[in-house]
Amino acid sequence: MKTILLAAGGAFLATIAAAETPVLNVLTYDSFTTEWGPGPAVEAGFEATCACDLQFQTAGDGAALLARLQLEGAASTADVVVGLDTNLTDAARQTGLFAPVQPAETTLPVAFSDANFVPFDWGWFAFVYDKKQLYSPPKSLAELADSDVKIIIQDPRSSTPGLGLVLWVKAAYGDGAAALWEKLADNIVTVTPGWSEAYGMFLEGQADMVLSYTTSPAYHLIAENDDSKAAAPFEEGHFMQIELAGKLAGSDQPALADQFLTYLLDDAAQTALITTNWMYPARTPAAGLPKGFETLITPKKSLTIPADQIEALRQAAVNEWQAALAK
Amino acid sequence: MASRAGKIGAIAAACGVGLLIIGSLGFLLPHANVANLTAADLAALRFTLLQAALSAAASCILAIPLARALFRARFWGSGALVRLISAPFILPSLAAVVGLLAIFGRGGVLNDALTAVGAPQISIFGLGGVVLAHVFLNLPLATRMLMNGWADIPTERFRLAQSLSFGRWAMFVHLEWPLLRALLPSAFAVIFLVCLTSFSVALILGGGPRATTIELGIYQSLRFEFDLGRAANLAMMQTALCFMATLVMAAVWQPSGFGTGLDRKVLLRAAWLDGCIIVLATLFFALPLAAIAARGMAGLVDLPNGFWMAAGRSIFIAMTSAFLAVWAALMLAMARARGAGVWVDLAAMLPLGTSSLALGVGAFLALRPVMPPQNAALTLAVFFNAAMALPFVYRLLLPNCRAVETGYSRLMASLGMSGWAKLNIVFLPRLAPILGFSLGLSAAMAMGDFGVIALFGAADQPTLPILAALLMGAYQMQAAASVTLWLVLIAFALFWLFDYLGGRDVGA
């Protein structure tokens, strides 16, 4: 009995001690918080300056984050959300859960301004291939569609890159998107629910190319010392994904949340993001990009669709994709 | 009295399942609106039914010669072989897909062999690939169900048949057909229902949006569109399908009526054809497993951080949910065998027709006002996994409970045995092998579960399948393959341990 009382008392005291340190709850996607993700470095770096306790809450991926917020509504205990992207901003804004943020200074290759979100990293979607297997990769989406090169893509209804490709084709071809999809249909070996299944199957040799990012080869080069992978530059330009962070209006730590959003664009956090998320930093750190990134392709043209048009376009573009592939 | 305690147990189990399932769905279904069903939803329904029916039919048809061959052929290692070919059923489906691709995929063993002899390559992607994968995953279950049936034909019947010089056809008509008639509808229905909720297999091997299943539709509407209405519609469709399948199954079920014997071992002569069938089946099952092992071997000892905690969580979920599932199934099956109504079937089969994703979201909505749902993730995983295993275990136990009840009820009654004595002296010894198998099966299935924890976003407390997925998402394909191999090894170890402890196994 005594022991139980003591234990209960101890737990109570511990709670009081913990209550003195403010807690910043950061809702982000799964891969952000793993030991290979930016989470550990970001947490340690921020806690060293904020006299607070940063705690991560997670949900699958960017889309799952939004679904989680919609489920939780105003009851969400999160202060900051990290990991939405430009394809989701409109839907995210419509929840009315986000507070205005200070615009941040960035080095994005396109103009970006948003009242509710700051970018923290970005990338271009691209088809990645193995230089030792595919000697002359297609030079455009159109050439890919006419070739017999086999590709694996992701489902736009369940994956961020999958949706990115559908919007890429839409941004490049507009009304001709459906026709391009019909020509692409026989190149597609299969469609996976998410990025990791597709990329894994590509590495196993199930297809010549896989939909990923222009930065994917940097992972193989830097982490595995393997220079065999490359992204194919396409003449139509490459669609961009910009990953975003935002502050919830219901946060009980608004000042800490602002401080965190600023910290996320500091050199330390940005440097950590490059080789954990394998994306480009939203604000290039003073030391520049790590060695190896200079080998990556730089698309001549960056394709985007304004955030406020995406919600209207998305369903139609996905339906177009579905109809073309179901034939 | 005996039946009273039994009845209370059955009612408790049925209420538990009902509360969990209906309680969770109850929070989602009010969002449903059938008027909003789209053409895409109906296409998903069509494809779901088609692939599930083909997969179940193919698994059942192939299981007949395989179960017969395995039952007749006794050789050194046949017990181990039976356990080996049971393995695919408990594989996480993503691991199975990887294994099958290594054999049947582009640049796989089969296509290399075809190229070597100048034949055109085959593609695993499409309806054929979906059915192939479902047969790979479910043929073991169908085979085990039939083998248990063969083992339950009393030796005396085989001896009688031999002394009457029954030919092959007469054996089939008088012994095997009644057995198949009793067991095949069960096997077909269970596999049909498993394939109804297929998700990754159908999408990855289906080759595109043509291969959209209802479960995938639920996933998409919840994860990407956050359309609770569409998710509820689809979840309702799936639950309705399950109910229909369960009722049909109950209607076509017939008792086999072999009576009981003296529990002696039977010895039958095997035909040369049996040998061929066994060799082919072994290759079909073992090659993809070997491919999974080969991929994971390289990093098997170089484990990522958090591996042991993840393994501990997975094993905890597996063990607790297995005992819970088997207890509930035993209560329900014994009640049904004693004549309780079709409500028992429905209670036991209910979890199969419900999407675990829909359940997860329902539970999330239910818990949210009370507590942070992620804090309940582990506990919920235990209950959901127990619920998901219940239909299989129930289907496995029911024929045996019925056989015991029909064979011994009068004897038990005339001896005035108490409920406890019945359970201990009559039921448990006769059910031991199937109980062991059931425990092993439930534990192994729970090991590979991805569902509810993934949905609740408990990435800071991952189980092994989630750890593997996280690794893949971070380009760590080798580490993911090794974690998957460990997952498979632990699942098999649990399965074999329980199956072994069940003792007197049909094949051993």
Walk me through what this model shows.
Chain A is α/β, with parallel strands linked by helices. Chain A has 13 helices and eleven strands. In chain A, strands 1, 2, 3, 4, 5, 6, 7, 8, 9, 10 and 11 form an eleven-stranded mixed sheet that branches. Chain B is an all-alpha fold and 508 residues long. In chain B, 75% of the residues lie in helices and 0% in strands. In chain B, α2 crosses α6 (127-152), α13 (307-337) packs antiparallel against α17 (419-447) and α19 (464-473) runs antiparallel to α20 (477-501). The longest helix of chain B is centred in the C-terminal third of the chain and has 38 residues, at 377-414. The mean pLDDT of chain B is 80. Chains A and B meet through α2, β2, α4, β6 and α9 of A and α4, α9, α10, α15 and α19 of B.
Number of strands of chain B: 0
Number of helices of chain B: 20
Structural class, from helix and strand content of chain A?
alpha/beta
| Helix-residue proportion of chain A | 40-55%
What series of H and E elements makes up the topology of chain A? HEHHEHEHEHEHHEHEHEEHHEEH
Shape of chain B: globular
Describe what is shown at a glance:
The complex is a heterodimer of chains A (327) and B (508). Chain A is α/β, with parallel strands linked by helices and 327 residues long. Chain A is 43% helix and 20% strand.
Topology, pairings included?
The complex is a heterodimer of chains A (about 325) and B (about 500).
Chain A: H1 2-20, E1 23-29, H2 30-33, H3 39-50, E2 53-59, H4 62-72, E3 80-85, H5 89-94, E4 117-130, H6 141-146, E5 151-154, H7 160-173, H8 177-184, E6 188-192, H9 195-203, E7 209-213, H10 216-224, E8 229-232, E9 238-247, H11 254-264, H12 267-277, E10 280-281, E11 302-303, H13 307-326
Parallel strand pairs in A: 1-2, 1-3, 5-6, 5-7, 9-11
Antiparallel strand pairs in A: 3-9, 4-7, 4-8, 4-9, 4-10
Helix pairs in contact in A: 7-13, 8-13
Chain B: H1 2-25, H2 39-72, H3 78-86, H4 93-104, H5 109-116, H6 127-152, H7 155-163, H8 168-196, H9 200-206, H10 214-223, H11 228-252, H12 272-297, H13 307-337, H14 343-353, H15 356-367, H16 377-414, H17 419-447, H18 451-456, H19 464-473, H20 477-501
